[in-house]
């Protein structure tokens, strides 16, 4: 189907109005066309089996500099379009090479060694929140600082600079940010990390950026520019995602008091709870974008080379063929087939870290704050109008 043939197509993205993702009626096979803010059209896939097919197919590229790549927001003409080092926008063989360099750093084995630090960070943040209230904003005092401190520790970024990078990453992800502001935020983050990398090259520490600078940049396997791109991605992905998950997860648990009671009684349910929260919330709500690099088929639909596609994780994670009553939150369902971390070669490299943070943060929070409750009505909670779904603030009491 060419762009010129499809008319009356819905406008994408659909917005973040509440815990249930918005979705137009696409008919039984859940495939449709959407119009993007750039005026382009793209295919939209929502079924679990179609996403598995699409996301593991070598016929699609993640490289946003390719013609036809579906852009979910307009970008300024003069913005440099470089996928350099930013793993998520790279294709094999470069992607494979970079991913291998990072894999050991994020393996479960390595993340286990970080657990005492994560726990201490969680406990300290809970104490600080206690000191600030009740009531207090759980996002400001707990959900945002914990993953930010952990990723700072891992990368060797001074946490004292958190206002600087959090503000720029907020601008970068907000739908309402004008394209020029987004461009400036990216360039400022790049400059900030370029300076930090230069520092670490001259006086290395025990952190990931120092290691990559010494072992990969110095040997010529990675350019300094690529390390900058990779560090920006890790810094943003490392705190924005988990932080939004902690805020939203707290809201969902408080809104399901019977399941929260069961979790308090049986702490061993925490792993299943985290998986179900990941499925139910699917914070990467805008889905994953790709462009076809060859004529290909997905779910019996012919996609021409150069056409853009969107894989809507939030819909696939509620596909009732795989998750019966998928719109319900049920921590007993066993949600291991969810795609909240994506699927295929780009599947989230940070998932062991995210899972450890969520498990520790939520367990400690419900144990240490047995009287935790919302300080406002649930329908007063405002959601973020951003690429990554979350709550703006979460006023709580205990
Ligand atoms: C990739 C989700 C936490 C780093 C992805 C992708 C998703 C995702 C859906 C796939 C993107 C694509 O295929 O285009 C999440 C969620 C998280 C989370 C829901 C938290 C609950 C983290 C953390 C880190 C991280 C803590 C880092 C430290 C990355 C990186 C990629 C990625 C580097 C790119 C991997 C690649 O392209 O090979 N994430 N993420 N993420 N994530 Fe996460």
Automatic annotation (TrEMBL):
<comment type="similarity">
    <text>Belongs to the cytochrome P450 family.</text>
</comment>
<feature type="compositionally biased region" description="Basic and acidic residues">
    <location>
        <begin position="75"/>
        <end position="84"/>
    </location>
</feature>
<dbReference type="InterPro" id="IPR036396">
    <property type="entry name" value="Cyt_P450_sf"/>
</dbReference>
<dbReference type="GO" id="GO:0004497">
    <property type="term" value="F:monooxygenase activity"/>
</dbReference>
<dbReference type="InterPro" id="IPR017972">
    <property type="entry name" value="Cyt_P450_CS"/>
</dbReference>
<dbReference type="GO" id="GO:0020037">
    <property type="term" value="F:heme binding"/>
</dbReference>
<dbReference type="GO" id="GO:0005506">
    <property type="term" value="F:iron ion binding"/>
</dbReference>
<dbReference type="InterPro" id="IPR001128">
    <property type="entry name" value="Cyt_P450"/>
</dbReference>
<dbReference type="GO" id="GO:0016705">
    <property type="term" value="F:oxidoreductase activity, acting on paired donors, with incorporation or reduction of molecular oxygen"/>
</dbReference>
<keyword id="KW-0560">Oxidoreductase</keyword>
<keyword id="KW-0408">Iron</keyword>
<keyword id="KW-0479">Metal-binding</keyword>
<dbReference type="GO" id="GO:0017000">
    <property type="term" value="P:antibiotic biosynthetic process"/>
</dbReference>
<feature type="region of interest" description="Disordered">
    <location>
        <begin position="71"/>
        <end position="92"/>
    </location>
</feature>
<keyword id="KW-0503">Monooxygenase</keyword>
<dbReference type="InterPro" id="IPR002397">
    <property type="entry name" value="Cyt_P450_B"/>
</dbReference>
<keyword id="KW-0349">Heme</keyword>
<dbReference type="Pfam" id="PF00067">
    <property type="entry name" value="p450"/>
</dbReference>
<protein>
    <submittedName>
        <fullName>Cytochrome P450</fullName>
    </submittedName>
</protein>
């Amino acid at each position: 189907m060419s762009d010129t043939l499809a008319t009356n197509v819905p406008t994408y993205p659909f917005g973040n109005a509440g815990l249930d993702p918005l979705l137009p009626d696409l008919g039984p096979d859940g495939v449709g066309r959407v119009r993007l803010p750039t005026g382009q059209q793209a295919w939209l896939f929502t079924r679990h089996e179609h996403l598995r097919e699409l996301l593991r197919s070598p016929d699609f590229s993640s490289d946003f500099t390719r013609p036809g790549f579906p852009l979910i927001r307009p970008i300024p003409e003069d913005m440099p379009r470089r996928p350099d080092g930013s793993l998520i926008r790279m294709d094999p063989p470069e992607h494979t090479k970079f991913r291998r360099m990072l894999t050991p750093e994020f393996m479960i084995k390595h993340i286990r060694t970080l657990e005492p630090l994560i726990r201490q960070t969680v406990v300290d943040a809970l104490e600080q929140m206690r000191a600030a209230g009740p009531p207090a904003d759980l996002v400001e005092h707990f959900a945002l600082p914990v993953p930010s401190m952990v990723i700072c520790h891992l990368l060797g970024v001074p946490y004292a600079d958190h206002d600087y990078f959090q503000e720029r990453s907020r601008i970068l992800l907000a739908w309402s940010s004008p394209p020029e502001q987004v461009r400036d935020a990216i360039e400022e983050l790049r400059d900030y990390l370029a300076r930090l990398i230069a520092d670490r090259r001259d006086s290395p520490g025990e952190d990931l950026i120092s290691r990559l600078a010494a072992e990969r940049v110095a040997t010529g396997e990675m350019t300094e520019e690529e390390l900058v791109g990779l560090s920006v991605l890790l810094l943003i992905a490392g705190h924005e995602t988990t932080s939004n998950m902690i805020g939203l997860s707290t809201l969902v648990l408080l809104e399901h008091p019977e399941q929260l009671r069961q979790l308090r009684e049986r702490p061993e349910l925490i792993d299943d709870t985290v998986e179900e929260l990941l499925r139910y919330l699917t914070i990467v709500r805008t889905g994953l974008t790709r462009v076809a690099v060859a004529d290909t088929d997905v779910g019996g639909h012919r996609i021409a080379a150069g056409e853009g596609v969107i894989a809507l994780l939030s819909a696939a994670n509620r596909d009732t063929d795989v998750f019966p009553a998928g719109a319900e939150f049920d921590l007993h369902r066993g949600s291991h087939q969810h795609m909240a971390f994506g699927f295929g070669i780009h599947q989230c490299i940070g998932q062991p870290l995210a899972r450890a943070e969520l498990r520790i943060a939520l367990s400690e929070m419900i144990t240490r704050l047995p009287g935790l409750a919302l300080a406002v009505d649930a329908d007063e909670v405002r959601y973020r109008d951003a690429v990554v779904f979350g709550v703006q603030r979460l006023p709580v009491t205990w």
